[in-house]
Amino acid sequence: MEANSNNYKLNIKDLPKFLVVITAVTIICLLFPRHDNTIKFDYAMGTNWQYDDLYADQDFSAIIKNPVSFGSDSLIDSNVRYTSGHLILYKGQYISDSIKQTLDQYLELKRNKSFLSFSNSIFYFIGYFILTALILGALIFYALKFFEKDFNSVKGISFLVFWPVIFSIIAYFISHSSNLSPYLIPFCITPIVILNFYHGKLALIIHIVVVMIVSFISSLGYEFTVLQILAGIVTVLIVNETRYWNKFFISIAVILGTYLLGHLGLALINSGSLISDEYSIFGWLTINALLLLLAYPFIPLVEKIFGFTSNISLAELADMNKPLLKQLSIKAPGTLQHSMQVANLSESAAESIGANSLLVKTAALYHDIGKMTNAQYFIENAGGANLHENISNFESAKIIIDHVNDGVTMAKKAKLPQVIIDFITTHHGTTRVEYFYRNQKSMEPGREFDESLFVYPGPKPKSKEQTILMLADSIEAACKSLKSPTGFDLDERIDSIVKQKLAKNQFTDSELTFNELEKCVNVFKSMLRSIHHVRIEYPTEEE
Q1: Which of 377, 398, 402, 509 has the most CB atoms around its CB within 10 Å?
Q2: Please, what are the domains in the chain?
């Protein structure tokens, strides 16, 4: 069939079997140059140009797999821009005429050094640098605003920048490999690891920053970005415990399900049907999920590099077979029982306000290890004898206060994390050894003496967890001294301890709010009532 317009002829048999609309229109426009006579497209196309459904269905797949070029006179879009990383040919792919033409054009441009000019490369670099700097700057300011005490140092900032850098390097090498897909990169390792050190809010924001930077640097589409951010959100919501393998495997399975369902949805949106060549990515996503197991050995590596303490390490330290705790059970068994009780109280209180319960529980087990030096001078280990009767109040106060310094020395020798040592130094704050202070005043009324000798060196507690430990320590010891207390007696003693701490300004540096303090106090009252409750004596059968 021919379409005629004056002296111009279009032979249909010379055209490919399959044309998209824009290609067909472009060919017609070029074959019918502008002149005085206006071309009527309905006439040019001809009335016998028809679409055959059966013919199209038979040839469609073959046409797509082996695209037909237009020969030497075919149309090449001169405005196509090839950037670094653009994939022209897969390994093992059939080289069709169109691909060969693109490859020849690329090689010719390469020889002419006109692929990208030096000035354009500089502008691209500057653009990427500005956008990356803005994203990283926003992340750093976010961390400094909401997690100031953890990131106001070079090491803290390095931790934030570490994640985008390491994943950008991985993405660079994978994007330049013809055998690997970017969907292989296990981005969710980032929130999994960070959740072992910090709150989920920080883990999620770092994950989003990593995905954003990698996506635009690697020229990946919106589908990739959406899928990775979705997986990160799910990770933050479900990954609570990495120290228990069964829970960790369940979390990985949920993340994989999110990946597969998310990609299925995106594939259906893009293809408009169940037939899509994007389903091959499912295999890469499955491998991605399996690679999340690398998060486990990655956690201690991050600990060593940045000096953090993970939940896994805290759980190991809470093992009662640890050397210091075994020594405590032998040299000061009463102190160990007190510490275990304080650990239970602290853990429950921390859980009630969403604080780090594992951290405060572990710290509670070690907070009094310094008492091992002079265990017999502490009432829980005295066994009835009171050795303080034979020494002065100043000496007694020094022995009591020194258990903090002795504890720090022991902790450093045992290489306990700094975060645990901080609990040892703050669990008494700057309070006074009240009993021996009052004894001294009553023994020599009117005589002046150095009151600082009866005061703990501090500092005051800062974190919520440190404040909870201070309260639990004082409350447990005070309530233990009550003989057959009623519920009213316990409540009154607990309220008295809290008021004393507030009156002595021990919470001025604390992050604990009054609302959270009230919740913790209620937990203490409930638990101590259960511990000290006196059972009702039921009458015997004879009675």
Answers
A1: 377
A2: 1-68 (no CATH), 135-306 (1.10.1760), 311-532 (1.10.3210)
